[in-house]
Amino acid sequence: MSEQNRVPTLLLLPALLGLAFLALPLVGLLLRTPWDRLGEQLAAPAVREALWLSLITATVATVLCLLLGVPLALLLSRTRLPGIRLIRAVITVPLVLPPVVGGVALLLAFGRNGVLGRYLDAWFGITLPFTSAGVVLAETFVAMPFLVIAVEGALRGIDRRYEEAAATLGAGRWTVFRRVTLPMIAPGVLAGAVLCWARALGEFGATITFAGNFPGTTRTMPLTVYLALETDPQAATVLSLLMLVVSVLVLAGLRHRWVGVQ
Amino acid sequence: MSEQNRVPTLLLLPALLGLAFLALPLVGLLLRTPWDRLGEQLAAPAVREALWLSLITATVATVLCLLLGVPLALLLSRTRLPGIRLIRAVITVPLVLPPVVGGVALLLAFGRNGVLGRYLDAWFGITLPFTSAGVVLAETFVAMPFLVIAVEGALRGIDRRYEEAAATLGAGRWTVFRRVTLPMIAPGVLAGAVLCWARALGEFGATITFAGNFPGTTRTMPLTVYLALETDPQAATVLSLLMLVVSVLVLAGLRHRWVGVQ
Amino acid sequence: MTLDANLVAVQGDFRLSLPLTVDSGRTCAILGPNGAGKSTALRTVAGLHPLSGGHITIAGRPVDRLSARDRRVGLVFQDYLLFDHLTVLENVAFGLRARRASDVRDKALHWLDRVGLADYADRRPRQLSGGQAQRVALARALVTEPDVLLLDEPLAALDVAARAHVRAELRGWLADYTGATLLVTHDPLDAMVLADEMVVLEGGVVVQRGTPAEVATHPRTPYVATLVGLNLYRGSLAAGVVTLESGSLTVTSGEEGEVLVAFPPSAVGLYPARPEGSPRNCWPVTVSEIEPHTGTVRVRLTGSPDVQADITTAAVAELSLSPGTRLWATVKATEIRTYPV
Amino acid sequence: MTLDANLVAVQGDFRLSLPLTVDSGRTCAILGPNGAGKSTALRTVAGLHPLSGGHITIAGRPVDRLSARDRRVGLVFQDYLLFDHLTVLENVAFGLRARRASDVRDKALHWLDRVGLADYADRRPRQLSGGQAQRVALARALVTEPDVLLLDEPLAALDVAARAHVRAELRGWLADYTGATLLVTHDPLDAMVLADEMVVLEGGVVVQRGTPAEVATHPRTPYVATLVGLNLYRGSLAAGVVTLESGSLTVTSGEEGEVLVAFPPSAVGLYPARPEGSPRNCWPVTVSEIEPHTGTVRVRLTGSPDVQADITTAAVAELSLSPGTRLWATVKATEIRTYPV
Amino acid sequence: SSPAPGTAKGEINVFAAASLNKTFTQLGKDFEAAHGGTSVKFNFAGSSALAQQINNGAPADVFASAAPANMKQVEDKGHVSGKAVNFVTNTLRIAVPKGNPKNIHTLADVVKPDVKLALCAEQVPCGAAAKTVFGAAKLTPKPVTLEQDVSATRTKLELGEVDAALIYRTDVQADADKLDGIDFPEMQSAVNDYPIAVLSGAKNAELARAWVDYVRGEHGKELLAKAGFTVV
Ligand SMILES: Nc1ncnc2c1ncn2[C@@H]1O[C@H](COP(=O)(O)OP(=O)(O)OP(=O)(O)O)[C@@H](O)[C@H]1O
Ligand SMILES: Nc1ncnc2c1ncn2[C@@H]1O[C@H](COP(=O)(O)OP(=O)(O)OP(=O)(O)O)[C@@H](O)[C@H]1O
Ligand SMILES: [Mg+2]
Ligand SMILES: [Mg+2]
User: Fold this and answer.
1) In this structure, is residue A196 part of a structural domain?
2) What is the pTM of this model?
3) Which residues of chain C have pLDDT under 70?
4) Closest residue, chain E, to B110 (C-alpha)
5) CB A111 to CB E155 under 8 A?
6) What's the ipTM?
7) What domains can be seen in chain D, in order of their start residue?
8) φ, ψ dihedrals at D53, nearest 5°
9) Which end of chain E is more exposed for a tag (fewer CB within 10 A), N or C?
C-alpha cells in the first residue's frame, strides 16, 4: 500500500514535464492578463449574458448527450449487429471533422434547406439554426463522441453477472439497466459527462457556423472571445480566463459532490 | 447471456436517435459532395502534402501524449499530494479553453517572447512557432487531456494487488509499471490514444494560432479545409470527407490489430 | 412446484447433459469436480444460459422459452453478487420492487429479520462479513418466493466456524421452503446435511445419483470415493474373491460379475510382520504419505492394491512409520462392501 | 533463515498485534475467523502493509524499512493473482526476470516441471483449473528462492478432491523448502497436515498457540473448539467440580481455580429417561438441531450447559429424535479434559 | 426613397463581417435610440461563413461583407434584393510593433531576409490584397505564415512572433497602443471594398433599408472613419 502508491522515479520526469507543458501556457495567459480589466469585463452585461448562455447550452448539450449517448454506448457494447463497425465509424466522425465543417454539415442536415431541416421547417415550423437550440445541437454533435466512448469503456468493464442476478430476481431489461447497470457505470458516465461538458463549453467552429453569433441567443463565451480577439485582444484573454475559472469551479464542485474522489 | 445481450427496448429509441443525429450531418455532406471532384483533389500535391502532414503530426502528437500523459495519469491516480486538485484543474484547461485562445496561450509560453520560448530562442536558437514541431505541440496541448482522463480512469479500475504480487516477486516500481500495470491498462490507454489522435487530427484553432499556416510545414488538413471553405466550399466538403475516410480507415485498422473487439 | 428438467447445454467445447427431477420441498445436491458443469446447470435452469436440447418444466409449466425474469427462480451465486450501490435492505427489496409487489419495505425487513440481520438494514454489502453477506443473498432470493431455489456453493466463501453455523441455519430455511431446491457444492458434508438426493457430475454427465447416504457408502467413481473418504476398487467377483487390476480381495458376497468394492480406511489394520489371524485379506504395502488428522493419522500405502488406512497416533509411534516403511495391511472380509457396477 | 517478528499494524479501526518466530524449514499456520487479521499479518511481513510498531527480522536481518521487492519474501495469494497477460511460463519467470537472474527460461521450466505443469508452459492462466493455477502461483513464488514463504489460504479455491491432492503435494514441497513458511488457513486439517506450529488469531490478537495437536486437544476459545469439533466450557474448579456459567461438571482433576474443560461430542450419551449408572455428569437437555454426518449424526442440545453429541443413525431412530425432544445427557468424568485458563 | 426615420418598426438581423464588430455594435445602439421600437441584431463572423449561412437559408435581413467575392456568392444564389453597394473600403498597411524596432519603412523592407513577415492566406481578402500589392511592387515576399484571417495575422505580430505584417488599416487602429501602421505607395493598388445589401429573404425589408441608410448616413460615416475605414 504505502510504497506502491508512489510513482516510479523514471516516470516522475515525464509526468512533471507533461504537467509543466499543460501549465505553462496557462501561466503565460495569467502573466499577460490585465487584471484591472477583469471587473470591467465582469460588469459588462454582454459578457455575463454570454457566460450564462455558455453554461446553459453546455449543460443542456451534456444532458442531451447523456440521454442519447448512454443508450448508444449500450447498443455498441451489447449487440453484435453486422453493421456495428459502421456505427462505430459514424461516432468518430465528429471527432475528426474540423468543427467548421461540422457546422456546415449540420446546416446541410438541419438547415432550412437541409436533408431533415426542410421538413422540420415545412411541417412543424421548426428552424434550428441561429437559435439557442441550434447552439445546443452543435455542441451536442461535437461533444457526444466523448461521452459515448467513455461510457462504452465503462460498460465493457463491469461484471455482467450482476445484471444476471437482477434478471433472476424478476427485473426486466429496463429495470436491470436503471437499477443495476447505470449505478455500476456511474463513475464512467460522470467522467464522460465531464469531458463532454468541457468540450461543449469550449465549442466554437460548429457553433458559429451552424447557430451564428447573435448576442443573447447564440453568442457563447468562445464566440465572444473570438470577437474580442478581432478588436480587443486583451479583453479576449480576460474573457478566456473568466471562462476557465468558472468551468474549473463547476467541475470541481461536481467532482466533490458526485465522486468524492479527493 | 443470450438475452441479457439485448438492449432495453426503451433505450433503443434514444440510441437510434443519437445515431441518426450523428449520421445525418454526414449524410448531408455526402449528398452535397461533388464526387467527380474527388479525383482532382486527391491528385493535387498540396492536398496530399497536407493529408500526410496531418497524419504525421497527429501521430507524433499522440506518441507525445502517451509519453507524457500516461505518467501524468499515474501521478494523478496514485499520489495524494495536497496540490492534486490544482493539477487536475490544470489538466482540464485545454479542454475548456477555446482552441484559438489555447494557441495564444501557447504563443505566450513557447513563442519568441514567451515565458519559456524566449530562452529556447536565446539559448538554443529553437523557435517553435511556424514549424511542424509547433503543429505537434499545439495538437499535443489540445489532445493530452483526453488521454490523461481516459488512462486515469483505467488506472482506478485495476486490481492493485497484481502490482503488489509483482513487488513481492522482486520487481521494482518501474518493472511493476512496465510489466504489470501497463499491460493491464492497455485497453484504456488504447481508447485514450484513439480519442487523442482523432482530436489531434481535427485540431484547427490552436494549430493555426500557434504554428501558423504554411504549405508543407504547418498547413494540415483542417487548415486546408478552412481555406477551401473561403473560396470553394465544394472542395472543402470533398477534403473533409477525404480526411474522414482516411481517419476511419486508420482507426478501424488499429482497433482490428490491437484490440480484437469486433 | 416440482422441477422437472433435462438440461442439455453447450459452453464452448463443453457439453452438459443432466436429467433431473426435484419435488416440491425437496433438495437435490449437485456435486462434482471443478469444471464438471455444476454452475452451467444452475445457469441453464435460471435462464441465463441457453438450453440446446432437453426441456425445463417448473410446476408443470414449461419455462424453456421464458426469460430469466419470468421463470420465478431464485439464484444465489457463490460470490453473492450483492449490489454494492444499494443498502442491505434495498438489496433484499430489489426483487419485490422489480415485481412491483406491495409492502416492499415490510416484507424485506421481515426477511432481514428472519436471517437475523434486521440491525444491518442500512449498511452497504461491503460492510458485511462473508456469513452475513451469504444470508442477505439468501434473503434476497427467497423474498420473491421463487418456485425453484438454486444455490451455487452457498457456503464456499465462509470460514469453517461460520460454515458450520450457516449450514445449520440453511438447513432450517430449506426445511421451511416449499419449492424445489438445487444445491451445488464441493463439500459432501453439505450434501449430507442439506440434501435429500445427490447427483454427482463429472465432465458434464451424471456419474452417480442417489440419497447422500447411498452415495457415501457406495461410491462409483474415484472422485466420489475420495469425496467420502473410502477405499474404492473395481474388479470382477467370482467365488467370493474380487480380482482387481492389481491384487485381489476376499469378500463375503456370493454374487458373480463386475463389481465395485469399498471399505473405510479405519477398517485397515497395519502390521510390521505378516500377522497370523482371522483377517482374510493380507498383503504387503509400503508407506507413501502420512497425514495427521485430529485423533487419527491417515496413511497412504502403495501395494497391490494401493490403500489408505486410518490409525491412531500411538500406533504411528509404535510402528515408527515414515515414508518407505514396509508393512502388511489387513482388511476383514466382513468390512468390505461389494455392489454391482 | 528464521523469521522473527512482532507484527503491529493498523488497518482502519482494526489493530493487529502478533509476535511470531518461525525457524528455517518450519511451517507456522495462522488460523482465525474472517476479519481476524490473517491476511494483514502476511501483508505486513511482505512489506505491502506498513508496520506501525514491533519489528520484522528475516535471517537475522531487519527488514522493516525495506520495500516489498527487497525483502526476499514469496507471497501466494488466495486468488493466486496470476498475470493474465503473460503465459504460464512467463508468470513463473517473472520474479527471475525482475531480479535479472540468468538462465531464466530453464529455471522457470524446471519449476513448472516440478509442479507437473511443463506441458502448460504456453497457456494463459485463465485456461488453467484452480488446482493448476495454485501450483503455478506456488512455482512463481518459490522459483525466486525466497527466505520466507507466505501462503494465504492456498487451498481455499479448490474443490474437495483437488484439495486433498494439492494438500499432499504442498506438504511435499514444504518439506523440501528450507525457508520459514507462514500459512494462513481456515481449515484445521490444513494446519494439522502442513504445519509444525499453529497460531490462532481472533480480532487481531493471539488467542492460542502451540502444536496443531496441542491446540486441537486443548482449545481455549469457542472458535477453536468449533474448529476442532469439541465441547468447550470455562469455569472454576474446586473439589473435583467445575462450576460453569450455567450448570456444573464433575471431573477427575484435583486442581483448583479457573479452568477450561473440553470433551468430544462422541463422549456424550443421550437417554430418554434419567439413566442409573456410572456417568458422573447427567443433566436434562432439549434437542435444537440434528445434522446427519457420514456414519454418525451430530445433535445440538440446549440445557445447562448446552452440548453437542455425536450418536449413530440407529440411535436417532431408536430415540425418535427431532427438534424439541427432551432427553438426558451423560458424560463420564474420565472423558473430560481440564486445563488451566 | 428611404423611409422617414421612425416609421419602420420591429427587428432585423444584420449579418456582418467580424471586422465591423465594434463599429456596427455602436451604430446599432445609436440606431435603436434614434428609432424607437426597433431592434438590430448582429451576427458577426467571417464573410465566407456568413455567405454560407445565408445561402443555407439563414434568417438575414442585411449582409455587410468584407469582400465583394462573398457578396457575389450570395448574389449568385439570388439572395440579394436590389444591388449591393460598397459602403467603405479598407486598405493594407504595414504593421510593426510599437517603436518599429526593425526600422521598416517601405514594402521592400518587409521582404528582407531578417524580417519575419506574416501575411493572410491568398484565399481570404487580405491575402489577395497582399498578393496584389507585392505584384504591383514587383517583390516576392517570403512570409513565415499565411494566416486565415486578419486578426490571426495581427495576433502574431502583437505577440512578437513576427516583425511585420500586412493588415488592414482598421486592424492597426484597433490595437493602436501596441502597433504602428506604415503607409506605402502600392497599397492603393489593392483597395478592399466592403459591400452591403438588403437581402431578398428579409422579413423586415423596410427596416433593413433604414439600417443600410443609417450606416451610409452621417453618423455611420463618422464612426466608420474613426475606426479606420475609408468611407466611400
Ligand atoms: N465462458 C466460457 N467459455 C467457454 N467455456 C467455458 C466458459 N465458462 C465455463 N466453461 C467451461 O464449461 C465447463 C463447465 O463450467 P462450470 O462453470 O459449469 O463448472 P463448475 O462445475 O461450476 O466448476 P466449478 O466447481 O469450478 O465452479 C468447464 O469445463 C469450463 O471449461
Ligand atoms: N481496506 C480496509 N480498510 C479498513 N479496514 C480493513 C480493510 N481491509 C481489511 N480491513 C479490516 O482489517 C481486519 C483484518 O482483515 P484481514 O483481511 O487481515 O482479515 P483475514 O483474517 O484475512 O480475514 P479473511 O478470513 O476474511 O480473509 C478486518 O477486521 C477488516 O475489517
Ligand atoms: Mg461453478
Ligand atoms: Mg484474508
Assistant:
1) yes
2) 0.80
3) 159-161, 278, 292-296, 313-314
4) E161
5) no
6) 0.77
7) 3-222 (3.40.50.300), 230-340 (2.40.50.100)
8) -175, 180
9) N
